[in-house]
């Protein structure tokens, strides 16, 4: 495909991209509607207020937001704070005001401070918090969500759970199983089977369908068949009431003089701002157009949205990671996708309230249990452990303190543990909060010598340094005089390398030869071993041993090391909406037509807790002397047919119905693509196994499936590519 052009913003962006953004907004709406209802109910708010919050986040905040692809709305990460605010503020017994009204007052005050923080450019302060502590806090929230929602899923009256701590709720689980309502539990269990079963189905079309909407399609008929509307208990179905008459000024500041009120203002401010800023940063990494969000502008817009939502009785909103990741995957291009998501929610509340009131609460509980599981799944523990044992320790400490006390103390304990680990590993006290470095520059190069430590608490200083570096030059970072570099800095360095190289510069990192990584993870913390003998040894995995044998037998050069080469795949469709972290196990050789390079790439889909990493073996054919138009070819599926209007027109050939039915072909220059796909090329593709082929700037990328390939499969793809390039060459010779 052609080099990606950054979509226009504002009304010009709406005119240019409204079809793509409307489709993405609709699909995100299908995901957001049930989750917004469930989050509101779990937070102690009326269910409809969750939808109101998402409507404000979509239709209002999108007009001022500083990020292009994030979706604003209520989030599971704030459930425990909202529920605590409603309970504790309600317990003040201020005459004439409910806990929800007082909590809304705290949300509005928080929003005002958030707006001020945005104007003061506090958006970068999120970099101070180490990822392991933040993820530990979110994992603790996930465990708390599960502790409450499992009882609702089993048909236990939520009123009986009020005031119980998470440990007490876990202790009650056997009792709730013994006293479960069979009808309610059946709905809940079916919902869980759908939510956890759909990702296991290896179908591109199925993977694109929002599981929450499938849950509603299945469980609403179940509730009708079992007549939930006319049987006890009354809490089995969602209740909306007269939604539009209930939208009014609903925030009370009567508790503003109490410590409880300000406690929740601070907690709302801290978690809301932190989680939003982290999501904005993570989604920027998935943006195929590599736009960098204005975090301060986004924080201000978010504050304005929180103020309006709180005044109308809604929940606090954030840039929500699962919906934002889905927006990227569905092809959203501008902030109008967020607007359309809010618009479709508005339409739903205008036309479909009777249908919404058929939704069983057990189905919403199942959705929240799935969210809680995603936040605190065993995979999160394992991913943290792979980064380093010290990261796992910080992660677990944060979880334990959060569950036993509160969120702020939990994060504080995680940060304190992080400082202790850094000091033990040699971080000088003088560099804990100050970025120490020396920089020199010439007309074409920057040379930066990093000293003492590069860690989370002085990361803001290094980020400010990176912002001063002009694009298009060579940057050398030397860590020989540093003593420790932590995971937070390694992530930022990785991000800087990717962005700088994407904009035409080059980055060289030296001085790590005398460092010992704390794990095998490529972004693990590392400490200096200067003065002691370091031992460097490459141990090949079973796959690498197998690939080395294959390379020797087939005259490939084999390089097992992991490298980061972002430019190689720039503007190829494979990296759109995804992030290529690095590649390894590279096999290269030259033949008469050009260079063949096979590699295992690590592809990140989604962000934060919604992040998954997929390993794919791909082949790139480059350095050919043929002129090939940019195109993308993939096996045709139901999903590609549905997305043809936004992903690109399917170029069919009337004389070749088999090829046209077998493949989805798109390209910006249709005439050039049609001229390239001659009779011989089409016949070759018709008579071979299905293959994904992408071309950009005369470089071809081939992959057979979104998985690693065995040596025999690599051999097949290599022969496939070589034969296809040979046919292209013969075609050009005949044309001459």
Any overview of this molecule?
This protein has an 8-stranded antiparallel beta sheet with strand order 9-10-11-12-16-15-13-14, sandwiched between helices. Strands 3, 4, 5, 6, 7 and 8 form a 6-stranded mixed beta sheet that branches. β7 and β8 (526-528) form a beta hairpin. The chain is 51% helix and 14% strand. 46% of the residues are buried. It has 736 residues and is α+β, with helices and mostly antiparallel strands. α11 runs parallel beside α13 (321-329).
Which keywords apply here?
single chain, 8-stranded antiparallel β-sheet, 6-stranded mixed β-sheet, 28 helices
In brief:
This protein is of the alpha+beta class and 736 residues long. 51% of the residues lie in helices and 14% in strands.
Layout: helices, strands, pairs:
Layout: H1 10-42, H2 47-60, E1 71-73, H3 79-90, H4 99-119, H5 131-153, H6 166-171, H7 173-178, H8 182-197, H9 204-208, H10 211-225, H11 259-284, H12 295-311, E2 318-320, H13 321-329, H14 336-351, H15 353-356, H16 361-376, H17 378-387, H18 389-404, H19 407-424, E3 437-441, E4 445-454, H20 459-468, E5 474-485, H21 487-502, E6 506-510, E7 515-517, E8 526-528, H22 542-553, E9 557-559, E10 578-591, E11 594-605, E12 612-622, E13 631-635, H23 638-642, H24 644-647, H25 657-662, E14 663-666, H26 670-676, H27 679-686, E15 692-696, E16 699-703, H28 711-735
Parallel strand pairs: 4-5, 5-6
Antiparallel strand pairs: 1-2, 3-4, 5-8, 7-8, 9-10, 10-11, 11-12, 12-16, 13-14, 13-15, 15-16
Helix pairs in contact: 1-2, 1-10, 1-13, 1-14, 1-16, 2-12, 2-14, 3-4, 3-11, 4-11, 4-12, 5-16, 5-18, 5-19, 8-10, 8-16, 11-13, 17-18, 18-19
